[in-house]
């Protein structure tokens, strides 16, 4: 598999504080890759170092095959966490300006920007000033400006921050559309649900260190599935077949799926006349995997911003 970004031993310090601490990372081409971590984990510094906006103090990185990432800026789209748009500029001119910075002819960027606004359902707002747009509309304009030049790599730093559910869904659709074209999309977030819906692969970062880098499925596979069983009977010889971690709630039994699978248990339940009413096997979600990998304290830091966004 081709690699869009690779880092080895990446370090970045500020006044003796290691914001990025020995990061090793592989980001596959053509994937949607999420970087998960609480605020202050080092996500933004790591992204800027990977893109060549700032230089590392140690380690190496390559971006789209180049050891000088900044030289690839014309085929990269970057949406920083700190949004900055000229409030008096029209939406379509903002997009044209951003496209021109990446080498497009101004007229071509303006024409394409107007078409992309139409496609995003904002054609009516093309000639409005940024200050006349809602936050969600302005963020859509900035995202269009980030991708108007057809980059091979798109990097979005906390793109969902402050958006309502409808605008989050619109942004997710735009991200998927880029990935379907074969573009590599990287985004950082402190909201695990976004990564679970969108990402094929993730990296988990806390205190500048990567604790996991790989497929979402591999992260979830670190935990065994949970079994939820309802029986007619409350006792019998079949009880001895239940795992040691089984929790009983009336006629319900909750436990981790045994290494041997569910078949031997089902045999014991049937032969012991337990009377199976319901049986479900629930695969752990990304949140559970995140807690197992990063720890409960880091997960708690992630949950707090999510709760604030939902208010």
UniProtKB/TrEMBL annotation:
Query: Keyword set for this entry?
Result: ATP-binding, Nodulation, Nucleotide-binding, Transport
Q: Which residues form the ABC transporter domain?
A: 5-232
Keyword ATP-binding in annotation: yes
Question: Superkingdom of the source?
Answer: Bacteria
Locate the coiled-coil region(s) and give their ranges: none
Please give the InterPro entries that the UniProt record associates with this protein. Answer: AAA+_ATPase, ABC_transporter-like_ATP-bd, ABC_transporter_ATP-binding, P-loop_NTPase
Give GO MF terms, alphabetically: ATP binding
Pfam families from the UniProt entry: ABC_tran
So what family is this one in? Answer: Belongs to the ABC transporter superfamily.
Name of the protein in question: ABC transporter ATP-binding protein
Q: Which organism is it from?
A: Sphingorhabdus arenilitoris
